[in-house]
Amino acid sequence: MDPITIFIVATLMMLANGAVLGFMHKDLPVSLQPCAETWRIATLLLAGSAVLYAVQYELPLGLVSPMANGMVMLGCTGYWRALRQFDGVPDRWWMLLPAVAGIGGVVWFAGVRPDTPSRILLLSGVVAFVLMAGTLQLVRGGTGERARSRRALAGLFFLVGLFVAFRAAYFLVRRVGPSFDITGEGAWINAASPLVTALLPVVGTTAFLFMCSQRIGRQWELAAATDYLTGLANRRTLLAEGAKRFATARQGGTRLALALIDVDHFKAINDGHGHEVGDRALQHVADQLQASARGLDFVARHGGEEFVVLLDVAQHGDAHAAGERLRLAVAGTPFTTGGTSLPITISAGIAAQADGDASMDQMLRRADDALYAAKRRGRNRVEMAES
User: Fold this and answer.
1) CATH assignment of 3-225?
2) Which of 140, 197, 209, 383 is deepest in the core (most CB within 10 A)?
3) Average pLDDT, the chain
4) Exposed/middle/buried for 68, CB within 10 Å: 0-12, 13-18, 19+?
């Protein structure tokens, strides 16, 4: 297959991938749509460059070379930007500097003062730099994400960047002349170039879509495990975590205690200030509980105005002190809304795991009895459940 045919086939594959991404764009979550749109535009730029390379005999070299090379540099920069958007990294104006400088240099070495080796070196340097920057973003970014698609895309960026650098060295060693033609026959690297260039818009787009899919899956898992209002673990997650810790404690590995917490006079806040203020009050309490948690403490919303904290204590006697720490954290941090400070306190019932507890549910029932006692004895206090 001659290089021109390869360019045409690569172009069709790029356009097909760009079209697929365009159709899927609106079905992605809003948070992923900007990076998907940037990736699609970058793919179309590379497809456009392949078209120009394929028809370069019909256009002046001084025109087609800067346009095609410029599209390649801008397309690769677009991929870099899409990865940064995917990771939530803000745009920076200096990201365009390599492509802008490269386009200016290509115009100079293609039309003003023709110098093919310098043009190849400049184009390859810019593309290799941008691809390596994309590789670093994939490796270092992602806030802990280690999806296989992300690692595969990082490897792809790195390999294409290496090929671009090797290609530049290859032509410089061979001392390419002014008549060099990327679609010319007789050099294996001419046939390899469009194939390798097509890896990013074709294989890379597939890996990018897998990254998006895995991100969506993680978001759904998080939504299923998290309380929508406070961001804490929800009841289902609490019960699963509690059962695991209960079983571990039964085997003698740890000591388990839990605090069942209720916001004092919460109905009065809802009735007097409205449900929106009530929701913010719950968020305030959740923030204070989370901020005062220590070690392996696990904070969850149990439902309504109730919270549960699985306490990380060295011995059961420390459980009451841990409950007091939580109570003081809430009572000592005023809740302000609309310029008005509303005092908020909590009552807590603490249950330490006892030999008679058959499950965490039994601990919760004992903690509920202790919570009722705290309410009955004046609120804003901590009571220990009987073993």
Assistant:
1) 1.20.1070.10
2) 197
3) 84
4) buried
